[in-house]
Amino acid sequence: MPDEMQGPERYEDRQREERKAAKTALLALVDQLRTAGVSEVIATFSGYGDEGSIEGVEVLDAQQQPVSLSKQFPNIEKTFDVLLSDGYEDNEGGSGVVTLDVENGRITVDTDWNVIETQNERYEV
Questions:
Q1: Are 37 and 18 in contact (CB under 8 A)?
Q2: Cys staple from 100: which of 5, 34, 41, 106, with CB 3.0 to 4.6 Å?
C-alpha cells in the first residue's frame, strides 16, 4: 500500500519541479525580451475529451502590437505547455491563457473550466 501512496506524490513532485524549471526558464528570458521591445507573451490553450494544446503564442510590445521572435525563441511554446492547469483537457475541458508579463517579471495562468449543468424537472401526470 505505501507504494500506491507514493505514486501520486511522485507525480505531483515531478510536476512541481517541471513547473519550477519552466518558470525559471521563462523568467531567464525577461531581459532578452525587454531588450527586444517585448511587453508580454501570451499563450492561449484549450482542450476537452482528453485532448488539448496550446493554440498559439503571441509576443506583444507595449502598444500591444505583435513582435516576431519565433527564430530567437523557437521552443517557448513547449515551455508554456508545462504551466497549463491540470486537467484542462479532460472531459468537458477548459481554455485559457498563460501570460508572461515581461515588464514586471510575472507569470499568470488564467483558466476557464467548461461545466455541464443539469437541471431536473419532475412532475406527475
A1: no
A2: 41
How far is the CA of 35 from the CAs of 29, 65, 69, 107, in angstroms? Answer: 10, 16, 12, 18
Within a domain: residue 123? no
**Span 25-70, pLDDT tens digits:** 899 889 999 999 999 999 999 999 989 999 999 999 999 999 887 7
Nearest one of 60, 111, 54, 59 to 79, comparing CA atoms: 54
DSSP 86: T
**Residue ranges making up the domain that contains 79:** 2-113
Q: Could you give the residue ranges of the DSSP H alpha helices within the chain?
A: 2-28, 30-35, 76-81
Overall pTM > 0.70: yes
- Is residue 118 a part of any domain in this protein? no
Residue 67 lies in a domain: yes
Give a yes or no: residue 69 inside a domain.
yes
Model confidence pLDDT, tens digit, residues 61-111: 999 999 887 777 777 888 888 888 888 888 999 999 999 999 999 999 999
